[in-house]
Design goal:
heterodimer, A: 504 residues, alpha/beta, Rossmann fold, 3 domains, 6-stranded mixed sheet, B: 335 residues, mainly alpha, ABC transporter involved in vitamin B12 uptake, BtuC, two-stranded antiparallel sheet, 1% strand, disordered N terminus, transport (chain A), ABC_transporter-like_ATP-bd (chain A), membrane (chain A)
């Protein structure tokens, strides 16, 4: 396939910033008719943001979008659909209670002359489209009766029903079986054959090389490179993806782990993770690396008593413990700083000092009665150590930036004087300054003898902060790396299963 | 208030506890606005009717709200925690029926009280188990138990009524502690104080706010969310039992239609008092003032011979008006 002329859709120097974060920094992306372009990048590279810009959900702060060479602006998702851009998401955005046909035509249903919905036409056209993609589905089946693979087919049918020229597929194979993936590939090839431009977002190298014609690599919201798949190797792509960013400096640490604090053996869950075993030492930072959905957070939430493991033992400071609830975990000395800061971490609506004191109310109160002076003192101590930026301790945490909210959540847990602190994506979506503060603080904590577990998808952070890294893939512990073996390439290979594929 | 203190880099080093003093916060509060409304209604009433400013008639007026307000205190905590109990009037009916049935066996006053409180607690526990144990939405559960509890009263009583309460029992609803100060008014004041302390001065109260603002975050902070909610349902049941004792004592009889539609008046009182219906904020003083506002309005309109139907229209308009006022004020200032 020769270079197929001009791109149907081009993004030029598109920038998108959120308070404290630059999600996209002057990135460019070209999509050609009849070609599949793979968008490659680590978590946080800006892939999801670009999908939202393309589908009209976010408006870029700078740069332009060119459709057939002419600049366009998408004020809404409808505008993007009207321009012929459709997205098939990771978790497909469809309506469980509607039928297949209704899902395909929702928002652009054919009308009768009276302006009513033309049901016979919907059924007929839905059947026709489903037939075209060889989808063995009855248009009148309620969507909730279908599996994920069939739902993807419905989403694709929906894309065809609007005659989309650009189809965005955001990790479409993440939840599919091998056979379903093969069927999806055939469909992608058919769409390509019809001259549609396809943006294919994936973490899996085998499928990128199998299906894509071109690639574009983003890293930390910046454009790194683009070209034809035929001209690169796996290793080159990996290097482009993980290439060290120079502006992040991690604190120096004396790595001298002490006695074992936490020993987890054969930890398993019916669906999320299987046979996880590790030992964590005092003063150590142990990282869990893996792709989104590898089961890392689930392991941590089980350790914190949110989800119930089906097998395995947990030993904390030499004592076997059964953790059934977060309050059990807290009294055993294990605390968890969740990834979903707004929902699980901070109590938005309550002031800073009340957030900090919440799990420590037993200490700051006397026979059940609050002592505000103690609460303020506690909050002041811990927020000061984290260099919290706020106007006062009585300020609603909801008014703080993401980074400062994270500092409040960490302060809340440190105030309980834990033995083990688990940080789940501690710097995701926070600004560089807060990131550095959190990193420096983690190093301090380890130096003071606290045992730290960090779940992170950011390779520089994993490399810069960890003593040891456990890599998880599909719920299993696939590698444990430290010292010289701890390289970005090794992390990516184990997480994506490249090594395993080659060995097989 | 600016988002963060970034303008001045030294600011974060001395984080003040609060920016505003107690006085400034008080002036800006919902409770102050409500108090102004209460005073306005009081003044308007005293101009509208020559019978209003009379110690005994004002004392009578307090019966318009004391019993409902007792339930409203517990309901306020439940709503702050993000749940609701619409079965409270049904609990009053069932508790009153249970006491009436017990009275037929000529039991003493202490036993009647225990029956009233016990029925309330059992009903509250039933709601609490359905909501926290089975994870059902409280609005649906308590609409169901609302009919269930009152339905039992109808089955037991039909078109009959229980009378024949012992002589000493009437004191709870008809007795006066001192001059015009009724027992109910004193109980209302004591309960207001207790609920104020529990909600605003104890760590239990703090967890109620945390749950209402973010139940997941509260769980992740080690709070036993289900247990706290269960206790709140128990308290609401118990307070409905207390209200049932006062009301039954005051009326001297029990019909199954007793306290009909009280759940709506209780919720109105709570919302008027500044409790966020979505949970997370509001205070007991707000509910106390709202109780007085509603009592004054009904009493004032009663003196002017306004029929009950019109009164409920007025209460509805008042509720919407008071809630819309701050929103209109901000919209107007933004123009």
């Amino acid at each position: 396939m020769a270079d197929a002329g001009t791109p149907v859709l081009s993004l030029k120097d598109v920038t998108k910033t959120f308070p404290g974060v630059t999600a996209l920094d002057a990135v460019s992306l070209d999509l050609y008719p009849g070609q599949v372009t793979a968008l490659v990048g680590e978590n946080g590279a800006g892939k999801s943001t670009i999908v939202k810009v393309l589908t009209g959900i976010y408006r870029p702060d700078g740069g332009e979008i060119l459709l057939d060479g002419a600049p366009v602006r998408f004020a809404s998702a409808q505008d993007a659909t009207a321009a012929g851009i459709t997205a098939i998401h990771q978790e497909t955005v469809l309506f469980d209670e509607l039928t297949v046909a209704e899902n395909i035509f929702i928002g652009h249903a054919p009308r009768t002359r009276l302006g009513l919905i033309d049901w016979p036409a919907i059924r007929a056209r839905a059947a026709e489209i489903l037939d075209r993609i060889d989808a063995p589905l009855d248009p009148m089946t309620p969507l909730r009766e279908l599996g994920i693979a069939s739902k993807h087919l419905v989403a694709i049918a929906r894309a065809l029903s609007v005659d989309a020229r650009v189809v965005v597929m955001d990790e479409p194979t993440a939840a599919l079986s091998r056979k379903e993936i093969e069927e999806l590939y055939e469909l992608v090839e058919r769409l390509r054959g019809e001259g549609r431009a396809i943006l294919f977002i994936s973490h899996k190298f085998d499928e990128i090389f199998r299906i894509a014609d071109r690639y574009t690599v983003f890293r930390d919201g910046q454009f790194v490179g683009a070209g034809r798949i035929a001209d690169v190797t796996e290793d080159q792509l990996v290097t482009m993806m993980v290439g060290r960013s120079v502006d992040q400096i991690f604190p120096d640490r004396d790595k001298a782990p002490g006695a074992a604090v936490l020993r987890v053996t054969g930890y398993s869950h019916p669906t999320e993770f299987d046979d996880i075993s590790f030992t964590l030492r005092r003063g150590e930072i142990l990282s869990f690396y893996g792709l989104v959905g590898a089961g890392r957070s689930e392991v941590m939430q089980a350790l914190f008593g949110i989800t119930k493991p089906s097998a395995g033992t947990v030993e904390i400071e030499g004592r076997a413990r059964t953790i059934r609830s977060p309050s059990d975990a807290i009294s055993a000395g294990v605390v968890y700083v969740p990834e979903d800061r707004g929902r699980q971490g901070a109590i938005i609506g309550l002031p800073i000092f009340q957030n900090v004191s919440l799990p420590s109310l037993g200490r700051t109160s006397r026979s059940g009665f609050l002592r505000l002076a103690e609460e303020f003192a506690l909050a002041r101590d811990y927020t000061k150590r984290l260099d919290l930026r706020a106007a006062s301790l009585d300020q609603d945490v909801g008014t703080l930036s993401g980074g400062n909210q994270q500092k409040v959540v960490i302060a809340k847990w440190l105030a309980t004087k834990p033995a083990v602190i688990i940080l789940d994506e501690p710097t995701k979506g926070i600004d560089i300054g807060s990131k550095a503060a959190v990193h420096a603080f983690m190093a301090d904590l380890a130096a003071e003898g606290l045992a730290v577990i960090m779940v992170s998808s950011e390779i520089p952070e994993v490399l810069g902060m960890s003593d040891r890294v456990i890599v998880m893939r599909e719920g299993r512990q696939v590698a444990e790396l430290e010292g010289a073996a701890l390289t970005p390439e090794a992390l990516v290979r184990h997480a994506a299963g490249i090594g395993a594929e080659k060995a097989a | 208030m600016s988002e963060t203190g970034l303008r001045d880099s030294s600011l974060h080093r001395h984080l003040p506890d609060r920016l505003e003093g107690r006085g400034a916060r008080l002036v800006k509060s919902w409770e102050s606005l409500l108090l102004a409304v209460a005073i306005a209604i009081f003044v308007a009433n005293s101009f509208a009717s020559p019978y209003f400013l009379n110690a005994w008639s004002l004392s009578d007026a307090t019966f318009n709200f004391t019993e409902k307000a007792m339930i409203a205190f517990a309901m306020a905590m439940l709503i702050i925690a993000g749940e609701i109990d619409l079965s409270v009037a049904g609990i009053v009916a069932l508790a009153s029926t249970a006491m009436g049935a017990a009275a037929q066996f000529e039991v003493g006053v202490p036993v009647l009280i225990l029956v009233g409180l016990g029925t309330g607690l059992l009903c509250g526990a039933f709601n609490g188990i359905l909501v926290t144990g089975m994870g059902l939405p409280s609005i649906v559960v308590t609409i169901g138990t609302m009919s269930l509890f009152r339905g039992i009263s109808y089955i037991v009583l039909g078109d009959q009524a229980y009378r024949g309460y012992p002589a000493g029992f009437s004191w709870f609803g008809q007795g006066y502690v001192f001059w015009v100060i009724s027992f109910e008014l004193v109980l209302f004041a004591i309960l207001a104080l207790i609920y104020y302390v529990v909600l605003h001065r104890t760590s239990f109260g703090r967890t109620v706010y945390a749950i209402g603002n973010n139940p997941t975050g509260a769980l992740f902070s080690g709070i036993r969310v289900a247990r706290v909610k269960f206790v709140l349902f128990l308290l609401t049941g118990l307070m409905s039992g207390v209200a049932a004792i006062c009301l039954t004592s005051r009326l001297g009889s029990t019909r199954p239609s007793i306290a009909t539609a009280w759940e709506l008046e209780v919720v109105t009182m709570v919302v008027l008092g500044g409790i966020n219906i979505l949970g997370g904020s509001g205070t007991i003083p707000g509910v106390v003032i709202a109780a007085f506002v509603m009592g004054l309005v009904t009493f004032g309109l009663g003196l002017l011979n306004v029929p009950g139907i019109v009164m409920s229209i007025f209460i509805g308009a008042l509720l919407i008006g008071v809630i819309a006022l701050p929103r209109l004020w901000t919209l107007w200032r933004q123009r």
